[in-house]
C-alpha cells in the first residue's frame, strides 16, 4: 500500500467566537491515498470543509487546531516553515471551492490568476506561463481559451468559471485535489458536465481526489471510498460500493434513503431525515445522532459509540445495520 | 498550532518602514540656515490694503510705505515729531497760511531725481476724484483742494506749487499747524510718475520709491521683502540690509513665530495674549494716539436724551476697566482726545465727567427711568474680537450693578457693525475706536462734527461745529487750543454722543537681543525702520 | 477602445463643471450681496462723494443684474475681477499666487493621509486586535475628534515653538508644509485608516483570498496583489469627500499656519465684503472638486473591472 498523501489522525478543530469555543471537528481520522477518489459527505455544518482547510492550515486565526498527526506527503503540516507551506499548498494539495464567482478574484483576469500559479509552482515566466494556462483552459474544455485568459471572472458563465478554477488548481500539478462541493452552485446539466470532466481528468492524470459534498449522488459517480461526517465526527467510512449497498451506520442509511436513488436528479437536501443536525456546541452527550436515530437505545444517549473497524471500513454505532456476515 | 498570521507580519513591516522613511525625510528638511544678521524680520499685522499712498488707510500699509517712501518730513523715532525728510527744511508764514518746503537733492530708487513736481503731482493725485482716495479730506484745508476733490474745481487751482525742482509751496485756506506732521505721513509720500501702471505696487521691477528700502518681493497675505535702497539720500545711516515683513490675520501665528525666534518684532498684538508676557523684557507698551469709546445712537430712544447718555457714562468705572480687565497700562478716558497729544501739540485734554454711580442714578431718574424702569431693551454691539468682548462684558456688568440696567451684548462682524452705525440702525450702543492721523486734537474732535461721515451717532450740534470752525480759522495757537477745549467740553461733559472708555496703549514684542537700538515707543506707534539697529 | 468612452466622459465632466460653476457663481453672487455693509465700510467712514467714486470705479452703483451679467461676461473671458480689500491685486493675481500653495498643501495633506493611512489600516487589519491595530484606532479617534483649529496650534506649540523642528508658520521652504499637512491630513488620515482597515478585513474574509492562499502564493502576493486593490475601493470612493474636506480644511489651516494659499480668502473675503475674491475662490474650488470627483470616478472604474463594464 502506497503512503497516503493526506494523513489525519485525531484532528480536533474548534472556533473561538465572542469568547466561546465551539468544537466543530472531534478526533477525526482520515487518509487520502495516492490516486484514489475519496468522497466526504455530510450535512451542512458537519465540518467537511473545515477538515481539509485544517489540513492545509488555511483556517483563520480564530480556529484552534490540534491533531496527533497532520501530514501532507509526509510533511508535518503544523511544523512547516512558511515557504515550505506555500510550496505544498497548490503544488501538493490543490483546492477547488464551491462557488467560483466568490473564490476567483474579481479584480484580476483569469490569465493573471492562472499564470501566478505557474509562476509560483512551475517557475515559468510570462509567455510560457500564458501558454500553459491556455493549454489548461483547453483541457477543462473552455471554448475559447486564448480570449478567456484576458477576461475577468464576472465575464464568464458559472460553468466556465468553475472550469477555470479547476484549471487553475490543476496547473500546479497537485498530487491531491480537494474539490469542496465543486458543482453545488451550478445547474444540473452543467453540474453533470463538470463532474464528468473531473472524473476524466482524475483518471487521466492519476490524481487523488477528495470530493466534499452533501450530495451522495455526486460522490457515487466518482469516488472509490466514502467517509460520512456527522457533527464533526467520521461516523462511517467504507468503499463506495459497500457503503451504498450495505450502509452500517443509521445516519448513512438515512442519507441514502433521502437521496433520490442516486439517479442524478437534484437531491432534496436530505429533507427526509427527521429533525435537524445538532448545532456545534450544543451536542448531546452520547451519540450525536441519537435524537434523530430510529434505532437509538438508551445507551446511545449516555455513551459515545466507539469506532469499529472491519477490513477496509469502519463505523461508530451501538446498533449498526446489517450485521456483519 | 500556529494559525495564519503572516499577512500581519508583512503589513507590519510595511508600516514600520514608512514611518521610518517619513521621519528621515522630516529630519532632513528640518534644518536650514538662519537669516543673515542684518535682516530684520517682523510681523506687520494683516495684509496691507495697498501700497498706494492714496489708498493706504491701515497701520500695516503705513508701516511699509514709510520704509519704501519718504515724505517731505519724516518721523522722529523717539517722539514721532516731524523732522526733515525729503525736505531739508520748511517755514511757515506768520498767518500760518503759506508753507514752503525746501527739498534736498535726492533720488528715486531708480536713480531719477526727486523733484518738487513729484510731490505736487502726488498730492494732487490724492485729491483727484478719479483716484477716489478715502484720505483726500486730510488735505481739504489747502486752497482749492476740496473743490478739486468734489469735481467742482481743477488741479491748477489747488494751492500746491512747485517752484523749481527744489521748492514746494502750499497755500492754505485756514491754518494747519499739523501740516509738517501730515507731510511725513503715508498719504503724502511721493509716488513716481510711472505709478498707475499695472502692478506698480506689487512687482519689484515696477515699484519706484524714495525711501530707505525698496520692494523686493510681495506675496499677498504672507510677506513683503524689502532691501536697502542704495539711492536713498541717507543710505549711509541705514544699516539694515533686508526686511521681511510678514502679514497674517492670525495674531497667534505672529506670537508663535516670535517665540520660535523667527521674527524680531511683532508690531501689534492682542492684549488678550499679553498677560503671559507681562514683566518680560520683550513686551513693550506705550501710550498710543487712539481712544476707545461706545457710540450712542442719539436718534433713537432712550439715547435721544443726553441725560441718559450721561448716566451711562457716569456708571462706568474706567479705572476698574483698565486695571482689572485691560491690565496693560491703558489709561481711563473720560474725554475724547488722548492725553499723549499734549507732548506734541501742547493741548491739554479736558477732564470730562467722573465715575459717579449716585449722579448717574439721579440723572436716569430725572430722565424718567428711576432704577432703569421703563427703559426699552438696550443693545451693546461689538465686532468680533476677544478684547472687545471682555470690555463689553465688563460694561454690561457695571451698568447692571450701578443702574440696574440690562444691556444685551450683540456680537457682529465688523462690516455689519459699521453698516449698522452708518445707517444708524443699531439699538443703543456700539463699540468703536479712533486712531488719530496726526497728533493734534483736531484729528479727534472733527470725527463728531455733523458733516463727518465717521460720526455715526446721529449727533449734530451747531455750536460744536461752529467752535471747531473757529478753531480751524485761528492762527493763534493758544486761542485755537482754547476753542478746541471748549468744543471738547461740550462734547464730553454735556452732549456725550459716545462714552469714552480708555486711551489705547500699543503693545509690541521686541527681541531685546536682536534689536539693540533705534527702536522707540511713541504716540503714533511709529518705528521708522531706517533707524533700527540689529545686533551685528 | 479606451479612447471613446474617455472622450465621452471628458465632455460630460466639462459640461457638468460649466453647469455647476454657473449655478455656484449666481448663488454665491446673490448670497454675498445679501450681507449687510459693503467693501468700503471701514472704521474711517468714507465721505459720500469718495464712496460714490469708488462704487463707480467698481461698477457697484449699477443694478445687481447688470453687475452679475458683467461678472459672468468677464468670467467667460477668464477675468475674475479686482479685489477690493487687496487693492494692488486682481483676483487672478491673488489666485495665481495662492493656488500653488493651496495645491501643495492639499497634495501634501492627502499624501500624508494616504501614505500613513493605507499602510496603517492594512497593518491594523492584518494584525487585528494587536498593538498596531490599537495604535491605528487611537490615531483615527484622535484624528476625528481633534478639530483642525485645535490640532494646528498644538502642533505649532510643540514642534515649532518648543522643539523648534519646524517653522511655526509661513511657507518659505518645503519643510514648512509638514505641520500644516499633518493638521490638514489628520481628519482624512483617520477616515482612510478606518476605511483601509475595514476594507482589508472585509477583503481578507473573502473567499478569493482563501483561494489565493490555497494556491500557495506567498503572503506578500496575497496581500498586495489580491488584497490591496479591493481594499482600496472604499478609500478611493472616499477621495472625493476627502478632497472636499481638505479644501475646506485649508481655510482654517492656511490661517493657523499663515500659508499664503487661496483658502484663507473665503472667510476673510466674506468678512471684507470682497465679493470678487470670494467668488473667484469659490469658483476655483468648485472646479477643482468637480474635476477631482470625475477623476476619482475614472480611477474607480479603472480599479474595479465589474464597474468598468457598465
Ligand atoms: N471561521 C469560522 N468561524 C467560526 N465558525 C466556523 C468558521 N468556519 C466554520 N465554522 C463552523 O464550523 C462548522 C463546520 O463548518 P464547515 O464549513 O466545515 O461545514 P461544511 O460541512 O463544509 O458545511 P457546508 O455544507 O455548509 O459547507 C459550522 O458550524 C460552521 O458554522
Ligand atoms: S449509536 Fe445509537 S443513536 Fe447513534 S447511530 Fe447508532 S444506533 Fe443511532
Ligand atoms: Mg463546506
Characterise this structure.
- The complex is a heterotrimer of chains A (325), B (536) and C (310).
- By secondary structure, chain A is an alpha/beta fold.
- In chain A, 33% of the residues lie in helices and 23% in strands.
- Chain A is built from eleven helices and 13 strands.
- In chain A, the strands form two sheets. Chain A has an eight-stranded mixed beta sheet, sandwiched between helices. In chain A, strands 1, 2, 4, 5 and 6 form a five-stranded antiparallel beta sheet that branches.
- The radius of gyration of chain A is 20 Å and the shape is globular.
- Residues 263-271 of chain A have low confidence and may be disordered.
- Chain B has 536 residues and is an alpha+beta fold.
- Among the domains of chain B are: 71-195, Dipeptide-binding Protein, Domain 1 (Dipeptide-binding Protein, domain 1), CATH 3.90.76; 285-505, Dipeptide-binding Protein, Domain 3 (Dipeptide-binding Protein, domain 3), CATH 3.10.105.
- In chain B, the strands form five sheets. In chain B, strands 1, 10, 11, 12, 13, 14, 15, 16, 17, 18 and 19 form an eleven-stranded mixed beta sheet that branches. Chain B has a four-stranded antiparallel beta sheet with strand order 4-5-9-8, covered by helices on one side.
- The longest helix of chain B is centred in the first third of the chain and has 25 residues, at 6-30.
- Chain C is an all-alpha fold and 310 residues long.
- Chain C has a domain at 98-260 and 293-304: MetI-like (MetI-like fold), CATH 1.10.3720.10.
- In chain C, helix 4 (91-126) runs antiparallel to helix 5, helix 4 packs across helix 7 (178-204) and helix 4 runs antiparallel to helix 9.
- Chain C is flat, with a radius of gyration of 24 Å.
- Chain C starts with a helix and ends with a helix.
- The relative contact order of chain C is 0.14.
- The mean pLDDT of chain C is 85.
- The interface between A and B is small, with 12 and 6 residues.
- Bound molecules: adenosine-5'-triphosphate (ATP), iron/sulfur cluster and magnesium ion.
- Adenosine-5'-triphosphate binds at residues 15, 17, 24, 42, 44-50, 60, 62, 214, 280 of chain A.
Amino acid at each position: 500500500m502506497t503512503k497516503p498523501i493526506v494523513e489525519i489522525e485525531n484532528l480536533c478543530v474548534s472556533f473561538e467566537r465572542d469568547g466561546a469555543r465551539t468544537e466543530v471537528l472531534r478526533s477525526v481520522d482520515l487518509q487520502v491515498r495516492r490516486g484514489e477518489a475519496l468522497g466526504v459527505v455530510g450535512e451542512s455544518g458537519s465540518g467537511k470543509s473545515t477538515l481539509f482547510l485544517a489540513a492545509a492550515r488555511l483556517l483563520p486565526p480564530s480556529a484552534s487546531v490540534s491533531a496527533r498527526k497532520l501530514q501532507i506527503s509526509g510533511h508535518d503540516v503544523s511544523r512547516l516553515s512558511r515557504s515550505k507551506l506555500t510550496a505544498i499548498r497548490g503544488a501538493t494539495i490543490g483546492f477547488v471551492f464551491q462557488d467560483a464567482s466568490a473564490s476567483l478574484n474579481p479584480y484580476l483576469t483569469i490569465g493573471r490568476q492562472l499564470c501566478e500559479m505557474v509562476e509560483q509552482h512551475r517557475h515559468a515566466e510570462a509567455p510560457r506561463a500564458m501558454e500553459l494556462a491556455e493549454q489548461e483552459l483547453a483541457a477543462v474544455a473552455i471554448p475559447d481559451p486564448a480570449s478567456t485568459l484576458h477576461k475577468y471572472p464576472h465575464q464568464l458563465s458559472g460553468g466556465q468559471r468553475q472550469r477555470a478554477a479547476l484549471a487553475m488548481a490543476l496547473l500546479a500539478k497537485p498530487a491531491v485535489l480537494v474539490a469542496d462541493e465543486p458543482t453545488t452552485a451550478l445547474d444540473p446539466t452543467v453540474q453533470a458536465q463538470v463532474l464528468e470532466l473531473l472524473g476524466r481528468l482524475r483518471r487521466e492524470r492519476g490524481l487523488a481526489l477528495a470530493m466534499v459534498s452533501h450530495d451522495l449522488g455526486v460522490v457515487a459517480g466518482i469516488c472509490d471510498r466514502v467517509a460520512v461526517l456527522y457533527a464533526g465526527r467520521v461516523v462511517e467510512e467504507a468503499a463506495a460500493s459497500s457503503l451504498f449497498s450495505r450502509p452500517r451506520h443509521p445516519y448513512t442509511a438515512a442519507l441514502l434513503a433521502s437521496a433520490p436513488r442516486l439517479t442524478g436528479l437534484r437531491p432534496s437536501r436530505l429533507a427526509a431525515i427527521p429533525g435537524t443536525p445538532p448545532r456545534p456546541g450544543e451536542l448531546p452527550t452520547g451519540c450525536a445522532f441519537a435524537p434523530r436515530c430510529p434505532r437509538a437505545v438508551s445507551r446511545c444517549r449516555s455513551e459515545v459509540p466507539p469506532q469499529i473497524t472491519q477490513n477496509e471500513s469502519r463505523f461508530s454505532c451501538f446498533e449498526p445495520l446489517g450485521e456483519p456476515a | 498550532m500556529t494559525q495564519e498570521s503572516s499577512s500581519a507580519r508583512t503589513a507590519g513591516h510595511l508600516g514600520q518602514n514608512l514611518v521610518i522613511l517619513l521621519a528621515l525625510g522630516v529630519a532632513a528638511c528640518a534644518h536650514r540656515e538662519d537669516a543673515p544678521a542684518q535682516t530684520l524680520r517682523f510681523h506687520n499685522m494683516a495684509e496691507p490694503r495697498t501700497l498706494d499712498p492714496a489708498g493706504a488707510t491701515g497701520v500695516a500699509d503705513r508701516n511699509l510705505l514709510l520704509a519704501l517712501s519718504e515724505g517731505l518730513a519724516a518721523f522722529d523715532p523717539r517722539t514721532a515729531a516731524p523732522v526733515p525728510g525729503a525736505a531739508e527744511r520748511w517755514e511757515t508764514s506768520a498767518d500760518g497760511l503759506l508753507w514752503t518746503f525746501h527739498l534736498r537733492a535726492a533720488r528715486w530708487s531708480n536713480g531719477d531725481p526727486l523733484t518738487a513736481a513729484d510731490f505736487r503731482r502726488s498730492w494732487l493725485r490724492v485729491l483727484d476724484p478719479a483716484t477716489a482716495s478715502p484720505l483726500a479730506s486730510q488735505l481739504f484745508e489747502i486752497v482749492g483742494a476740496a473743490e478739486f476733490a468734489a469735481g467742482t474745481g481743477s488741479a491748477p487751482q489747488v494751492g500746491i506749487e512747485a517752484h523749481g525742482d527744489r521748492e514746494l509751496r502750499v497755500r492754505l485756506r485756514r491754518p494747519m499747524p499739523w501740516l509738517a506732521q501730515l507731510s511725513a505721513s503715508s498719504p503724502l509720500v511721493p509716488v513716481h510718475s510711472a505709478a498707475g501702471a499695472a502692478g506698480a505696487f506689487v512687482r519689484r521691477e515696477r515699484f519706484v520709491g524714495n525711501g530707505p528700502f525698496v520692494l523686493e518681493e510681495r506675496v499677498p497675505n504672507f510677506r513683503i521683502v524689502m532691501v536697502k535702497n542704495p539711492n536713498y539720500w541717507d543710505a549711509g545711516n541705514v544699516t539694515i540690509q533686508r526686511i521681511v515683513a510678514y502679514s497674517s490675520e492670525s495674531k497667534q501665528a505672529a506670537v508663535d513665530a516670535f517665540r520660535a525666534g523667527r521674527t524680531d518684532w511683532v508690531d501689534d498684538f492682542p492684549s488678550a495674549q499679553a498677560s503671559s508676557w507681562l514683566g518680560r523684557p520683550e513686551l513693550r507698551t506705550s501710550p498710543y494716539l487712539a481712544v476707545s469709546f461706545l457710540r450712542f445712537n442719539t436718534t433713537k430712544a432712550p439715547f435721544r436724551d443726553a441725560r441718559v447718555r450721561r448716566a451711562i457714562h457716569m456708571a462706568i468705572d474706567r479705572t476698574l476697566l483698565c486695571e482689572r480687565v485691560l491690565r496693560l497700562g491703558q489709561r481711563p478716558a473720560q474725554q475724547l482726545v488722548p492725553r499723549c497729544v499734549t507732548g506734541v501739540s501742547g493741548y491739554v485734554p479736558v477732564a470730562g465727567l467722573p465715575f459717579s454711580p449716585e449722579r448717574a442714578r439721579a440723572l436716569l431718574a430725572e430722565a424718567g427711568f428711576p432704577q432703569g424702569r421703563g427703559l426699552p431693551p438696550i443693545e451693546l454691539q461689538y465686532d468680533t474680537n476677544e478684547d472687545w468682548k471682555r470690555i463689553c462684558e465688563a460694561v454690561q456688568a457695571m451698568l447692571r450693578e450701578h443702574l440696574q440696567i440690562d444691556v444685551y451684548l450683540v456680537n457682529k462682524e465688523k462690516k455689519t457693525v459699521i453698516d449698522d452705525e452708518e445707517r444708524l440702525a443699531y439699538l443703543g450702543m456700539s463699540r468703536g475706536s479712533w486712531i488719530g492721523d496726526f497728533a493734534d486734537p483736531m484729528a479727534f474732535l472733527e470725527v463728531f462734527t455733523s458733516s463727518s461721515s465717521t460720526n455715526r451717532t446721529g449727533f449734530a450740534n451747531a455750536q460744536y461745529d461752529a467752535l471747531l470752525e473757529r478753531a480751524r480759522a485761528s492762527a493763534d495757537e493758544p486761542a485755537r487750543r482754547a476753542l478746541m477745549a471748549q468744543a471738547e467740553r461740550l462734547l464730553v461733559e454735556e452732549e456725550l454722543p459716545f462714552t469714552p472708555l480708555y486711551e489705547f496703549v500699543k503693545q509690541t514684542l521686541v527681541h531685546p537681543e536682536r534689536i539693540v537700538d533705534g527702536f522707540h515707543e511713541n504716540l503714533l506707534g511709529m518705528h521708522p525702520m531706517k533707524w533700527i539697529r540689529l545686533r551685528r | 477602445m479606451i479612447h471613446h468612452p474617455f472622450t465621452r466622459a471628458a465632455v460630460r465632466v466639462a459640461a457638468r463643471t460649466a453647469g455647476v460653476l454657473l449655478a455656484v457663481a449666481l448663488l454665491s453672487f446673490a448670497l454675498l450681496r445679501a450681507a449687510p455693509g459693503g467693501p468700503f465700510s471701514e472704521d474711517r467712514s468714507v465721505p459720500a462723494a469718495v464712496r460714490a467714486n469708488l462704487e463707480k470705479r467698481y461698477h457697484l452703483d449699477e443694478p445687481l443684474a447688470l453687475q452679475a451679467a458683467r461678472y459672468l461676461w468677464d468670467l467667460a473671458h477668464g477675468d475674475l475681477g479686482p479685489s477690493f480689500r487687496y487693492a494692488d491685486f486682481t483676483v487672478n493675481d491673488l489666485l495665481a499666487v495662492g493656488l500653488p500653495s493651496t495645491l501643495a498643501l492639499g497634495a501634501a495633506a492627502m499624501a500624508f493621509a494616504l501614505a500613513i493611512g493605507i499602510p496603517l489600516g492594512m497593518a491594523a487589519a492584518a494584525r487585528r486586535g494587536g498593538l498596531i491595530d490599537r495604535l491605528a484606532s487611537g490615531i483615527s479617534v484622535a484624528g476625528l475628534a481633534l478639530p483642525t483649529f485645535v490640532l494646528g496650534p498644538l502642533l505649532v506649540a510643540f514642534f515649532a515653538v518648543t522643539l523648534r523642528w519646524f517653522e511655526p508658520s509661513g511657507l518659505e521652504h518645503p519643510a514648512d508644509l509638514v505641520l500644516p499637512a499633518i493638521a490638514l491630513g489628520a481628519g482624512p488620515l483617520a477616515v482612510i485608516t478606518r476605511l483601509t482597515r475595514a476594507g482589508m478585513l472585509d477583503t481578507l474574509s473573502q473567499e478569493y483570498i482563501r483561494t489565493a492562499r490555497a494556491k500557495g502564493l506567498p503572503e506578500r502576493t496575497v496581500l498586495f496583489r489580491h488584497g490591496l486593490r479591493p481594499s482600496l475601493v472604499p478609500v478611493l470612493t472616499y477621495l472625493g469627500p476627502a478632497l472636499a474636506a481638505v479644501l475646506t480644511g485649508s481655510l482654517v489651516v492656511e490661517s493657523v499656519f499663515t500659508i499664503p494659499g487661496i483658502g484663507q480668502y473665503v472667510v476673510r473675503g466674506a468678512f471684507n465684503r470682497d465679493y470678487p475674491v470670494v467668488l473667484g475662490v469659490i469658483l476655483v474650488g468648485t472646479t477643482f472638486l468637480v474635476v477631482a470627483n470625475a477623476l476619482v470616478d475614472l480611477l474607480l472604474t479603472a480599479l474595479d473591472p465589474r464597474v468598468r463594464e457598465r
